[in-house]
């Protein structure tokens, strides 16, 4: 059965409102925000990835879910498959310590299991956070007329993966974006109040925007030419439509996608400036459904593959 | 690296008091109790186990950790490896629904991942609970002079596993104990106040008692003849020392091991009677360290293997 079919079955038993219909980045139980992600060798990370970077990413992707709900992290629990490789295990713990110190998140506990020889390394992480006093924004809160925003730059991590696979000449900015995503925790907390809807971009800007549109019953209109691309990406790729579509469908960005009343724009810019985070308006929400793409005022058909499906 | 070595390294970064030095059944963060356990096919469950029973056990073992801290469950997050086997996945969801309804615990969220063909099924579960108002008992609270107690009967699940492996003629009581452990949630919550120390018996009564002794800096003296054995077990095994040592080192019991002032005995018996749970005194704590075993007033050397090491 596909992941979507399985989640549909799970949804039939996840009837508590705290589960948010299994359709948000995290569960919201009273003032707690809870998320759990697993990563599997060969599926979510390359077998030759550095263990420090695997640990970093395992934590960062979960903290990014907390960021998307405006939550302040309270701690994490780790589920670890012992690999039988002493150097690997030791380097993983070093990376885990590094990312937890960077975001000042305590390691609370977890579990360690042996795995059969040859089995892929499988790790899980649960992150617990405190919801903002004004409530955790949902994916489903978009209102027609909202301005759509995204933090940081898009597509660097996807290009970093292509570099890791030897398809593109490497540069450190894109490799770092792929290996060491930076969850937008401070910005997510600061912005939680003005926003109407927020989620993190993990599978690709377009597929995640599509999910936000579906959850909200709105259409998200995105102007592809406004999607923020880094100098490092534009040093390797020309600024043409194909580059922008590739960046917007690559995934692994761990930036925040959010919408707010257009009257909130100056507040949002002030918060972004104070935290030294780029926040860029990329379109508007309207009545309708799905995503509507334009590039320099030309309507563009959405690509068949909107992002990473898993 | 061994699990113990790995946990020792993790401990060096798990310095927050909420982690309880990674030496308790669960983390205790303010009034929250948090636990995460993973299970791996071929390691923690047999490849031909019924998926409903795998789901039951995944939830039950985590709820048992909450029970050991006297916590009331608030919800769970599940990490699921899609198996590619539609019947298996569907039966797992049914079993998950069944155990969550039985203990009235909401499914809050989680993650679903694809795994490479042939990889062992690996599942994780995080359970969140509310600590008792008087605080969550630790493993480390034993005081010399305490009476040592255990709930239910010991060794049934271990015998059930032997039955599953075709080593012993099957009976339903022991098979059920193996397949569908019953976490002592109500008793754990009711008893949290009088007890000095509490943990659940997962790897074997003796190894878990040894861990409690180490955490507390006390000696736990256990009278093997008092360990409660079920009629179903005694129908298959004679009541001799070897049977009692086998039961006390088999694991998978998910009963509660706890200590309290001997003056609390009548309160404990009253709580047990009210909840229809067996609670049996099995010895006393003293000054010293480790476990001290006797059988009908004869000193017995602890067996080399005290339980399931992993």
Automatic annotation (TrEMBL), chains A, B:
Gene Ontology BP annotations: thiamine biosynthetic process; thiamine diphosphate biosynthetic process
E.C. code: 2.7.4.16
UniProt keyword Transferase present: yes
Keywords linked to the UniProt accession: ATP-binding, Kinase, Magnesium, Metal-binding, Nucleotide-binding, Thiamine biosynthesis, Transferase
Residues the entry annotates as binding ATP: 110-111, 139, 202
Binding site for Mg(2+) 4: 25, 35, 65
A molecular function (GO) term: magnesium ion binding
Residues that, per the record, bind Mg(2+) 5: 203
Domain of life from the UniProt record: Bacteria
Positions of Mg(2+) 2 binding: 37, 65
Keyword Cytoplasm (UniProt): no
Pathway: Cofactor biosynthesis; thiamine diphosphate biosynthesis; thiamine diphosphate from thiamine phosphate: step 1/1
Binding site for Mg(2+) 3: 25, 65, 200
Family the UniProt entry places it in: Belongs to the thiamine-monophosphate kinase family.
Name of protein: Thiamine-monophosphate kinase
Organism: Sphingopyxis italica
